[in-house]
Structure formats: structure tokens, C-alpha cells
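Minutes, project check-in
Item: structure for the 341-residue chain
Input as provided by the requester:
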Amino acid sequence: MHVNVAIIGLNRISASMGLALKRYQARPKAEHTFTIMGNDAIGQTMKDAEKIGAVDNFHRSISKAVQGANLIIINSPLGKLEDLYATLGPELAAGVVVLDMTPHKMPVIEWANQHFPTNSEGDKVAYVVGITPIVNVNGLYNANFDAAAASADLFDDAEFLITPDTKCPSEAITLAEDVIKLIGGRTRFMDPAEHDGLIAATEALPALLGVSTFYSLQQSEGWPELRRMVNPTLALMIQHFRHQNSQDMFTLLNNNRANLARHLDALIGTLDQVRAALHDDAGTEQIEALLSVAYSEWEKWDVKRYSGKWEESKAPEIRGGLMGGFLGFGGLRRNKDEDED
């Protein structure tokens, strides 16, 4: 069965999804084929995605990019996301499922409720399912976020968080599960509000630290010399400047204010302790103790992150595929023979 896919917002993550779908399609026993249309604000990014085979074609117009799409994957800049949903809503046909990979799930649910089409009874006929890919270890320390750096194996054995609205129909959720498993990933469910509380620590907090560090250094008297001494340690910390404009950063911070403030308060508490120890001639032991604990815990985390074995638990029951309920074709379940290809 053939599926039309649109990817709105192209970078290493979303382009890798396109490549992974094409990889599946190339299997001798593949049951489904895909035509993938790309869209991005930057023309060269769309060309790069087409060149590596992540998309079959692209269009600058969002309306034309999603025309005829059965499945839409959104990975757009945060600063324009609300406007995107307002534009996208009237273009959606009944049965279309949108997989949203952007960091904030609660606002996305709200925008979808506002703009997605409904039937005569007021029920939604197009659906959004939030997903968050946690890339595998091969892509964990890769700082190149460009579409040209995409890889078909980025999600092999990678975990995806699925964060559906409570009103989202089970068929749309199962479709998200099917797609994730088809491209090599594993699924874990999470409440959208819980997700946003945690993502503030893993996305917004590091981004804020990078921006704040650069701002502090740029304001210092030593900046004329400091600016000439930037090497990878600092460059990697401030890499968000290369991939997000100020409006995107503002949205990342502002749409998750309470959660971000909570994590920032905890970090400031730790930094206060370090500062006090640095000012105290007798603070050497405190600094050594902090580093000892941090490095020990990091080693434990690193082992688990590479192995993917976080805890001993029973494997979840796999439900039958219901992808055809929306797209008109059978569930995207891989049989044993396909897994061994």
C-alpha cells in the first residue's frame, strides 16, 4: 500500500525519519511504499534533504506540501509553530494524522484543538499525536543538526516517547506506534504535561545556559580577547545560536516557564554551593566531593544510555496494528522474516 507523507521542518532528526521510511520501503518484503514531500523555510535545506533521498520532492508552500498527505510529520521552528497550526488546520483531510516532534506537547494539543477540522457533531476528524525521539548512541554526541547529516539508522533501537491527548482516538496512537517500530524505534508512553516538565531540563535548561554564558562573556571587559579564544568546549555550548533564532529560543523558554524555573532554581542552588567553595580557602574538599559524585553518577548513566537497559521490566504487550483505520492500508507490523532481512 502506498502512503503520502509530508515532513514540515527539515533537519537531521526529521530527515532521518524520511531516510528510515525509504530504508523500509527498499526491503524485499516491504508491504508499504512512501512518497515523501518536504517543506522548510530554507531552500538549501530542502535541496539537501532531496539530494540524500530523505524526501522525494519539496515545496515552499505548506499548503501544497501537505496536499494529499495521509501522514504529516512536524519538526518546525518553535517561533512559528502556532501560526503553522493555524495554516495547517484548514488543509487537513479527514483521517490525517499529524506526528508532532517539537519539544512542547501541551501547547500543540491546544493549537490542534483550535484549528483542526471537525465534523457536523463537533468531533475532530484529523488528529495530532506528540512524539519525541531519543536518538540512539550513534547520534548522541553528533552536533551537526543539518538535514544533510541525516542517517537512516539514527532511530535503530532508539526510544520514542508518545504523548497523546486523552481525547486522541486509539487508532491514531497505534499509527504512531506502527511508524516508530517501522523505522526501528521502541515506544514509551508519557503524559504530555509530564513530558513538558522533563523536557524543560533536557532541552530548555541547556539552551538557556548556553545563551546566558555567551551573554555574560560578551558583556565582560575581557570580551575583545575572549571572542578570539573560542574552541569546541564553548562553541558546542552555544550551538543553539546556529540552529534557532531569538524568537524560537524565546518560545522554547517562555512556553515552559514554570517547569524551566523549577529546574533553574535547583541548578542555581548547586552553583551557589560551588561558588561558596571557590571563595573559601577550605572549599577544596567540597569541590572534590561534588566532582566525585557527579563523575560516578555520570558513569552509571553512560553505561545505561549506551545499553538502553534502564531497569528490569516485563516487555509490554504489542497491540495489533490499526494503521489502516486511517490511511486505508494494513497495519505497519513487521513479521519475523522482515526483521531478519
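Outcome recorded: Confidence is low (pLDDT under 50) at residues 318-322, 328-341.
No further action items on this chain.
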